[in-house]
């Protein structure tokens, strides 16, 4: 595609480019076919089984929903959950994984985490004969990873952004967690899409989102960027791989009176979806995952594995892209008030 053909496209034409710009690679995986509640009578059981659940942290809506859903599902299936939360502390996470391996549970499920930090310990668990499953972790030591289709999420969000800005303009990108598999996939899909739109430019240097104090830090960084680029139209959008930096960015843009800039993120946190629903808010779109369903499906996969069933490499739970037009429908479907 040439520069001339990319710059003047409207929303419909840009979205039609999905098949070219954002071809989704799903790997050896399957989509979850039904909610966990719909499969309550399929004979799965964890009776007499101890299932370790390790969370990198639960301060974020997505993580907490997955964590609680997993605990509930283990109990519902008659098992005993051994649940630990590292509070976003890598040292504590490693220590907890070490303890879990020593306890020899019937299975271990790891929720998120930087691969270089957790993978050696997932390997130790497997070497100790403990089946390892994951949520949003692309590890070769995981027998099954339950996740959203992050290739699709990244492509759809990028195409929405490009459509909204008319296929041209500067965008600000938060890229602080490339070591976390879903964040890396979403970022790569953004880059893959915008290479077809040479008038869309990522401002350099890219910003690094942080944990903790994510909202405040994003607010400060975006405020500084807006001071550096004070003219309207000099920045068209802000992108982040999850929606808590998006929250801080949205607040900073509103405070500066620069609501012509749109923000984009991933997860479907209630406070961000509320901003997307506000017609006067800079929040443009949020790819809403279904974290409770991801948690349920991950534990059901544990039960299937322990019952002798063969699992796919990955199990995908569909995500829903919420924009200004459909956010009411999406929040209703997700059960978010």
In summary, what is this structure?
Keywords: Signal. With 337 residues, the chain is an alpha/beta fold. It is built from 13 helices and 13 strands.
Number of strands: 13
Q: How much of the residues is beta strand, in percent?
A: 15-25%
- Under the CATH scheme, which class of the largest domain? Alpha Beta
Q: How confident overall, as mean pLDDT? A: 91
**Biggest sheet, strands in spatial order?**
1-12-6-5-4-2-3
Structural class, from secondary structure content?
A: alpha/beta
Outline the low-pLDDT stretches. Answer: 1-9, 18-27, 33-41
Q: What is the C-alpha radius of gyration, as a whole number of Å?
A: 20 Å
CATH architecture of the largest domain: 3-Layer(aba) Sandwich
- Helical percentage: 40-55%
Shape: elongated
Under CATH, the homologous superfamily of the largest domain reads Response regulator
Features:
Rossmann fold, 2 domains, seven-stranded parallel β-sheet, six-stranded mixed β-sheet, 43% helix
Detail the topology: elements first, then pairings.
Elements: H1 3-7, H2 11-15, H3 18-21, E1 29-31, E2 50-55, H4 61-76, E3 80-85, H5 90-103, E4 107-111, H6 115-127, E5 132-135, E6 144-147, H7 150-164, E7 169-173, H8 181-194, E8 200-202, H9 214-228, E9 237-239, H10 243-255, E10 262-267, H11 270-277, E11 283-288, H12 291-306, E12 314-316, E13 320-323, H13 327-334
Parallel strand pairs: 1-12, 2-3, 2-4, 4-5, 5-6, 6-12, 7-8, 7-9, 9-10, 10-11
Antiparallel strand pairs: 11-13
Helix pairs in contact: 4-12, 5-6, 7-8, 9-10
